[in-house]
Amino acid sequence: MSWQAFILLLLTAFFWGLPPIMEKAALGGSDPVAGLTIRQIAVTLILIVFVTLSGRWEHVQAVSVRDRWLFILSGISAGLLGMVTYYYALRVTPASRAVPISASYPLVAAILAVIFLGEKMTAVRLAGIVLIVSGVYLVR
After folding, report:
1. Which of the residues 88, 91, 97, 118 has the least number of beta carbons within 10 Å of its own beta carbon?
2. What is the average pLDDT across 91-115?
3. Whole-prediction pTM value?
């Protein structure tokens, strides 16, 4: 792995690790759906400005109809349904418990990748799945 990739992944972990703290603090007095709405509006507006300023609308328009639907379904699944259930869970349980359990999604992705994408289940992947399940069990 290149240093650039490693640094980008560390930044990703930081950027994904920071919001649960802010969200947990905000959800003490706010409705989860209202919070998610505010979050999504902000992200949408920032993306529109970014795509406009960087001249990438042609890239957005070039996405095939099939791929658009897959992105839409992905957004509904993760960006809406997953975030609503996560916000409600975060509201009623400590962040230190909610985040690791919700972060067990690689287990789901690994199983679905085998079923729908035909990826192979190797011993190393199986060991990883066992470790994920073990970790979720330990933080329950």
Report:
1. 118
2. 88
3. 0.81
